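Re: [ENG-882] Designed sequences occasionally contain unexpected residues at chain ends

Forwarding the minimal case from QA. Structure tokens:
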């Protein structure tokens, strides 16, 4: 079947890249069609990523706070996890968020086509519905926003029963007695932190020398120390070679540094070794769209090598983050509409990890800044010296600012501790405005707030932190 309407823009995929691009395009006066193969809108972020994980992590945060409530004068008789209620809360938030996306599509007059979308030649997109019926749409431009899916290790399949992906982890209705997490990026440590606080015995296995390996080294050290205090076992420089499934769980054979063989047993295993782009079967080869290891290649305005075809989000080789997918979507659409655009500065993307303690970071790590040849000055301030952190009974962690000597520009901010994922917004605004550490010092921060740690870390860059 062929639709007789021609759209200015067709977006394949309704995640935070696709749906945000659709709204911005509609605001700019384009007629827009969004194609989604899943029954609900919102993509990984809404259905199986950012939103459901943070809902369950909020339950873990409250549980932990309640356990320590007596220390600040709140005694609860029986503090326990009610997993069915936690799941109900998570599902309610996911439903509200996905319905919110559907509402926004209606409000902005974006048409939604349910089915699998594919490039079907210049100016044509095919959508195959669940019933197998194919519709061809005429379109002037296309944005590929198909996202990504969990990766596994060679020869070690995810079966969603014993060896789980982040998606099947979110469906667990009971807390496993023991959990091995393979991989310690944001997804791995968030689930490790969640299930450890829920009561599981958690072990993290990481092939690299440190956990959260993309973060500043001092952040990794602080998180590892905190996790160990919380009873999470960490095996860095350890490579899982085999998983054998048996009654009641799995046995993992791994090789650690020094060629030592280690055996681990756990009721459940989470495979958190990263994600791969969803780019198979969407007509890339036939249209000649250039790819690299499955990722769609784009220029600084999100254009592929094929005129009228753009790509954004997890399907392109930039950081896999929801807010970045959205920013790329807006950039692509504004470029398409002939608006003046600025390329994205990939050195200034905030990254948040919602484990306990939280991590919020942006910009260059100290090591990266040195690698790039900057004359680096570092200022650090601990939350133990911040009144508000002590009031909250969460006084561990620190703020670290990496600046350069010549112009004093802030190159990176790395926070581990209470509300780090909220505090990082100040650093993002400061870096966008090319702030110096002196300007952060001259910015008056309210008292008592956690943001004083950023102020004092900036003072530390200048060599005169006050409260330490
Ligand atoms: C467990 C977990 C936690 C995360 N937490 C965070 C977080 O806290 N913060 C953060 O910034 N990021 C987080 N992320 C990453 C974030 O979810 C992704 O970066 C983001 O969803 C990418 O957005 P996207 O629009 O590119 O793709 P997606 O969100 O993956 O959406 C792509 C959509 O396209 C659809 N699709 C694919 N192929 C087709 C096709 N051929 N036809 C029709 N539809 C198709 C898919 O069904 C999907 O709905 C998390 C990820 C995971 C897995």
């Amino acid at each position: 079947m062929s639709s007789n309407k021609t759209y200015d823009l067709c977006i394949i995929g309704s995640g935070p890249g696709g749906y945000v691009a659709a709204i911005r395009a509609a605001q700019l006066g384009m007629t827009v069609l969004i194609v989604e193969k899943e029954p609900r809108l919102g993509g990984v972020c809404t259905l199986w990523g950012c939103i459901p994980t943070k809902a369950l992590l909020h339950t873990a945060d409250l549980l932990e706070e309640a356990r320590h409530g007596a220390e600040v004068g709140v005694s609860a008789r029986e503090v326990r996890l009610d997993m069915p209620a936690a799941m109900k809360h998570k599902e309610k938030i996911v439903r509200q968020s996905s319905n919110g996306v559907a509402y926004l599509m209606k409000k902005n007059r974006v048409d939604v086509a349910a089915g699998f979308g594919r490039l079907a030649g210049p100016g044509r997109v095919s959508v195959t519905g669940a019933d197998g019926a194919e519709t061809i749409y005429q379109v002037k431009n296309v944005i590929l926003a198909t996202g990504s899916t969990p990766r596994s290790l060679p020869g070690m399949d995810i079966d969603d029963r014993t060896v789980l992906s982040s998606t099947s982890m979110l469906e667990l209705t009971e807390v496993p007695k023991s959990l091995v997490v393979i991989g310690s990026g944001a997804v791995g440590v968030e689930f490790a932190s969640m299930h450890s606080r829920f009561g599981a015995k958690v072990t993290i296995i990481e092939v690299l020398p440190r956990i959260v390996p993309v973060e500043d080294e001092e952040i990794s050290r602080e998180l590892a120390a905190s996790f160990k205090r919380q009873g999470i076992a960490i095996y860095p420089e350890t490579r899982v070679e085999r998983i054998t499934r048996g009654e009641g769980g799995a046995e993992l054979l791994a090789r650690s540094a020094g060629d030592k063989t280690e055996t681990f047993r756990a009721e459940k295993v989470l495979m958190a070794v990263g994600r791969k782009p969803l780019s198979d079967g969407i007509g890339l080869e036939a249209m000649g769209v250039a790819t690299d290891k499955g990722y769609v290649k784009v220029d600084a305005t999100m254009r592929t090598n094929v005129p009228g075809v753009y790509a954004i989000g997890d399907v392109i080789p930039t950081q896999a983050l929801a807010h970045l997918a959205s920013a790329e979507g807006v950039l692509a659409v504004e470029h398409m509409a002939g608006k003046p655009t600025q390329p994205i500065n990939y050195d200034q993307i905030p990254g948040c990890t919602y484990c306990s303690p939280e991590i919020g970071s942006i910009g260059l790590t100290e090591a990266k800044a040195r690698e790039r040849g900057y004359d680096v000055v570092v200022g650090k301030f601990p939350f133990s010296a911040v009144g508000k952190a002590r009031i909250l009974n969460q006084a561990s962690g620190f703020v670290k600012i990496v600046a350069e000597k010549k112009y004093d520009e802030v190159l990176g901010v790395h926070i581990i501790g209470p509300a780090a994922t909220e505090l990082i917004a100040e650093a993002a605004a400061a870096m966008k405005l090319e702030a110096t550490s002196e300007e952060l010092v001259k910015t008056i921060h309210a008292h008592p707030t956690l943001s004083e740690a950023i102020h004092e870390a900036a003072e530390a860059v200048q060599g005169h932190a006050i409260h330490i």
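QA comment: On inspection the terminal residues look reasonable. The chain has a mean pLDDT of 97. Proposing we downgrade this to a documentation issue.
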